[in-house]
Write a structure and sequence with these properties.
2 copies of one chain form a homodimer. Chain A is mainly alpha-helical and about 450 residues long. The first copy, chain A, contains 22 helices and 6 strands. In chain A, the strands form 2 sheets. A 3-stranded mixed β-sheet of chain A has the order 1-2-3. The longest helix of chain A has about 35 residues. The interface between A and B is large, with 110 and 110 residues.
């Protein structure tokens, strides 16, 4: 950060030639982060940006957030804008204009040449979260009858305008994808070997309309760093690179985590999301779960008169602890299984193996927690005696704990698997849903155990 | 999967030459998945594997799980094993022997030449989860005084033995890292340009001892596909590639999710983890949270006699619903903020902005849920009349709901930020912890509101 402070000094002193000298050696990501974090009223951010060489300006621009991109575009000349646009990869251009107000979109479209304009419009048409919206069209194509020597010459001529040349695509004259070949394999080949003989023909590709989550899964499964995108006729139309997939993976994880916490996922980052949108995404599940809790209320109401008549109202003071422990034990199981399902480690056929595993875990955990609880109740009552029959009370509560943990883990591990089998999102079966169901069961167990013990 | 079934037929008919023909065209990942899923007693899996060409056998081997790797190594000859080892990248070899019993490790070490043996022992020394344990040593080095032509010749000669040649490293004779250069930029250069003039000198690198989570963050931040690893003297010792980082990202996410559900993370996959280990990872938090719930019990005990004396025991039937809604509202906030912290979107300085945002959200959500709850109580009581004063009861419960949601969201959004500020893991401040705290507060609010309404 030292060099950035020095830069600001130089900008203030208007020593622009020295500034230009320094900026070229800076990392584009760090530079983007630095000017994003500057005060909005500080004109130095824009000045610094305008002093970047054209190519670097485009790279920095692609890393900036929406607000900063907009502020810059509003300040720079048409010539500067067109310079940046000519250097930007098309997927970055599209990502940028998707977020901009109409006036800026118009200006960008006007600045682009007619070819680019057509391609931008094409890319804008793909649905959000589809492979088409993720891909770029700057890929490297080879003919299958080229020699290695010819292929290397072509790559050397064109590689600078391509988003990635790690994986090269072999196509026929109608652009049908025939095979893929790693650049390293081309380089390792002898000059006169034919590309068609070297290429891989078991092509891993996706259709433009494929969901981005599926694309991310394929990247993970096959350890890819680039993947071809084809249209319905099998013609090569684009390229997806790993850096965009990493972003998708994070988005998908965030969505899962939100669902597990009883929220609908938000589209933008939390800080950029408005209060009303946040409220809307959260209120639905709170309402559903609140209504479902009617059952737990009914269970307590049913036993209410017994509790009063038999002088057992003190039993209610253990309800929160029993419910929370049951809920937590259930969430532990459900979250473990949901994560396994997301990672593809388990399937519905494993359900009996999993139930048996969770059963044994719940016996160990249940007895451990129950014993500790027994001791806790005895000690607490020794300090502040409130219980008429502390041993029996401690026994009832601890026995309920064991049953609760067993049943909570059973429900926690089975519901996500059943949801997945029924093509529902297993993440919806996480803690809040499990807690609501387990609550009701815990209360039933508790009152029934108590009824036997106190003979009501 | 059709071609795999055909393969099995051919193996049974002992038509091995035809099998060999078919297997070379198969995808290695699909092949690995296929033989992994075969029955353990089925010898065809091993036969199929032994029919693979040497290079492909190594690739398939790297994708197999631990059990299958062990079964294969126990069945194949020393010559076959040494063939596979010579083709495996060193990081894959190390990953493999780290998981094997001592007898196999010994055999592998014996099979390797003395150079490889030294390197394996070196790599095994790095702590788990460090950059050193993640890296491979098969990287491509260039001298800074080479011309582009010379560099391309060298890459063509050596690329086949390198794990990745997308990013090349420029070093001095003492192996000190001088710069990095993308292969595409080498290819785009003119034959007589000097590598030293083309390379990037703002090097993004890590030390061997850096934590893998930090490595993953750097890959994300700088959109890298490969990164150099250096020792304390700045000498180049390894290369980390994006495919290994993607695995780290998943591991880290799984750890976060486990912590958020009150579990200590497990080292291996759920299915490979034993019952006792699972129980150990889960029981600690259950015990801590169970003990903390002593407070909620004490609050209820304190009001118990009032409830009985004023004929208000029916109020306890709303406790589960109030606690769950408070807990859920709090988790929604805490999980949102924890995810933001993990993604680097918010910092402690944003705390007041976040509190203000959550306050407004909680007002909207609170009123919405409260109104629905009011209606629910009135309707339920109209169907099964149990309440002496339904309007007042509905009002008390709904008012408590509003206060509970406001306080739950406040605690949910502040605790993770405070934990992060105190260098604690914010994920520990997720649902279960928040629920326990919110429960006690909800009960206090509830009984105080009721005390005012019923004047006890």
């Amino acid at each position: 950060m030292e060099e950035f402070k020095e830069l600001l000094e130089l900008v203030k002193e208007k020593k622009f030639i020295q500034v230009k000298d320094i900026v070229q050696d800076l990392n584009v990501v760090d530079f983007a982060e630095f000017i994003e974090e500057m005060d909005e009223d500080d004109a130095s951010a824009i000045i610094l940006f305008r002093l970047l060489p054209k190519e670097m300006a485009a790279e920095v621009f692609a890393y900036l957030d929406r607000d900063m991109q907009q502020r810059i575009v509003e300040k720079i000349s048409d010539k500067e804008l067109s310079g940046i646009l000519s250097e930007l990869f098309l997927d970055d251009t599209v990502d940028f204009i998707e977020e901009m107000p109409a006036s800026i979109v118009k200006r960008v479209i006007k600045m682009s040449d007619s070819d680019t304009r057509k391609q931008i419009n094409q890319l804008l048409k793909y649905p959000e979260d589809s492979a088409g919206s993720l891909m770029t069209i700057e890929f490297m194509e080879l003919d299958d009858d080229w020699t290695v020597k010819k292929a290397i010459e072509e790559v050397r001529k064109k590689s600078q305008d391509k988003e990635s040349v790690s994986t090269l695509f072999v196509t026929d004259p109608k652009r049908k994808l025939l095979g893929t070949i790693e650049l390293r394999d081309v380089l390792a080949g002898n000059d006169d070997e034919i590309i068609g003989n070297l290429m891989e023909t078991d092509i891993i590709s996706v259709n433009t309309m494929e969901d981005q989550a599926e694309v991310a899964d394929m990247f993970k499964k096959y350890d890819l760093i680039a993947m071809p995108v084809v249209d319905n006729e099998g013609r090569l139309v684009g390229l997806i690179t790993i850096d965009d997939v990493v972003d998708v993976m994070e988005e998908e994880t965030t969505e899962d985590i939100y669902k597990m916490a009883a929220m609908e996922p938000i589209e933008e980052s939390y800080m950029d999301t408005g209060v009303f949108t946040l409220a809307k995404k959260r209120i639905v599940w709170l309402m559903v779960l609140m209504i479902s809790a009617t059952f737990t209320g009914m269970i307590i109401s049913k036993y209410e008169s017994d509790l009063v008549n038999y002088n057992l109202v003190f039993l209610t003071s253990y309800i929160p602890m029993l419910m929370d422990t049951g809920g937590n034990a259930g969430s532990q199981a459900s979250v473990s299984i949901i994560r396994c399902i997301v990672l593809g480690e388990v399937a519905f056929k494993d359900i009996f193996k999993i139930i048996w595993k969770e059963f044994r875990v719940s016996i160990i955990v249940g007895i451990g927690v129950a014993v500790l609880n027994f001791i806790r109740i005895i000690i607490t009552n020794a300090i502040y005696p409130t219980l008429a029959n502390p041993l029996l009370t401690a026994f009832i509560v601890s026995l309920t704990l064991i049953f609760s943990i067993i049943i909570a883990k059973f429900i926690g591990c089975t519901l996500p698997l059943i949801a997945h089998k029924m093509k529902l999102d297993p993440a919806l079966m996480a803690s809040p849903m499990i807690t609501t169901i387990v609550d009701a069961l815990v209360l039933l167990i508790y009152f029934n155990v108590a009824a036997i013990a106190f003979r009501f």
